[in-house]
Amino acid sequence: MLRKIRITLAAILMIGITWLFVDFTGTAHHLVGWMPKIQFLEAVLAGCVLIIAGLTVLTLVFGRIYCSVICPLGIMMDIFGWLGKKSKKNRYTFSKAKSWLRYPLLVVLIAAHMAGIAVVVQLLAPYSTFGLIATNLLQPVYQAGNNVLAAIAEHYDSYAFYHSEVWLRSVTSLIIAIVMLAVIAVLAWRNGRTWCNTICPVGTILSFLSRFSFLRIQFDADKCRNCSMCSKNCKAACIDYKTHTVDASRCVVCGDCIESCKFGALVYKAHWLHKTHEAHKTHETHETNEPSRRSFLLSSALLATAALAQEKDKIMDGGLAEIADKVAPERQTPLTPPGSLSAQNMTRNCTGCQLCISQCPNDVLRPSSDLLHLMQPVMSYERGYCRPECNRCSEVCPAGAIKPIKAEDKASTQIGHAVWIKKNCIPLTDGVECGNCARHCPVGAIEMVPSDPDNDESPYVPAVNEARCIGCGACEYLCPARPFSAIYVEGHEVHKEV
């Protein structure tokens, strides 16, 4: 029963989070947008005390079920491990904890976070690693499948599906996603939960708590026949059948060992209940009911913890007119989304999960290629602009890198300012009237003025009121100059109200 409940809840979380990353319509965000907010490291960075307390209590009571039920990377490892098990049954063995590796890696993560070296955090954090894989590898496949259905629907004059353009946001991010998927798949295929118990910092933190968990998987020595089937089926390599011990710090409470034991020698119970032969006889009368009560308690606790983060979400869609591709300008300061407050806040809090990138309806966000900010979101306006009424990225961010911001507040938040490039401006290069940037500026920060102040008949060119500009990029996106726009947005290190 324990294993069935674990698989059921893990499947719900895995499907929900994966759907959230691949969906481009906003529907998933409305229904399962709370799931990323119950991820441990993201809750810590966002300062969500209620979520942290809930996960702590969950671990102290039930052990490390977070790793096998809530963490999407852990669930993905179980899928690869299951596939590996199909090829070779009973293939795991007991091994001692590699403390010499796991604790230094945790120290490295903390030091990297304090030093602002985001790339280290992103490569070690489990949720961000899964997000990297889902955004770069799964979402394009999902979009391609959607486009096939859209073509079929269009043939029958149906608009049940609409076309979504598949485009490469970052070659660097794609390569890293492929490498990480290969490494994790091989490790899980061969050795089960090696990544969780030697590399993952969240697993290391939870291992401290699980040592004191109330419920644990334990041996009933009177029933054990030392057949070693439990050790051979333990993906965490934490069961030593020779000494009848289970390392609670590494056990992810998957229940595989209980199912594989033909003699009922493994039980999930309070660790301080040491059975005597007589007590075992007394317990037999109600043993059949006890697993169901424990299972109900386990599932209730998991669902209650998940409910702590659930919120009502707003759906915000935006469609953009197609326009020819542009070349991104060389910005002195990268643009970060409204709500991120500053480049420093983004660097310190962002885990690079790329959920905001996959959810951006305007194709403005993409992974950074800068080493110190690798895979963190930056803004660029070749394919769209940051619509003032859209605040999707601030709603989905689970780590507090992009704080929740209302649409009316976003419209008065300056993330950068427009800069005019005289040599690219069409009225001067081609001798034709334009004024696209001024007409489409949502805050009226641009006006057209004579290029020659002493001649009203001279070509009109844009003049930018930097104090009023919010850096939304409408001018840059809609500028007809190619390949470089005649006006572009330069970012600000610290955002401010205008």
Architecture overview:
- The protein has 498 residues and is mainly alpha-helical.
- The protein has 23 helices and 10 strands.
- The chain has helices spanning 2-22, 27-32, 40-46, 49-62, 65-70, 72-87, 99-115, 118-124, 126-155, 171-191, 194-198, 201-210, 229-232, 256-260, 277-284, 290-308, 343-349, 355-359, 392-396, 407-410, 426-429, 436-440, 474-478, and strands at residues 215-219, 239-240, 245-246, 266-270, 365-367, 377-379, 413-420, 446-450, 460-464, 487-497.
- It has a two-stranded antiparallel sheet.
- Strand 2 and strand 3 form a beta hairpin.
- It starts with a helix and ends with a strand.
- The model is unreliable at 274-292, 294-303 and 305-323 (pLDDT under 50).
Write the layout of secondary structure elements.
Blueprint: H1 2-22, H2 27-32, H3 40-46, H4 49-62, H5 65-70, H6 72-87, H7 99-115, H8 118-124, H9 126-155, H10 171-191, H11 194-198, H12 201-210, E1 215-219, H13 229-232, E2 239-240, E3 245-246, H14 256-260, E4 266-270, H15 277-284, H16 290-308, H17 343-349, H18 355-359, E5 365-367, E6 377-379, H19 392-396, H20 407-410, E7 413-420, H21 426-429, H22 436-440, E8 446-450, E9 460-464, H23 474-478, E10 487-497
Antiparallel strand pairs: 1-4, 2-3, 5-6, 7-10, 8-9
Helix pairs in contact: 1-16, 4-16, 6-9, 6-10, 7-8, 7-12, 9-10
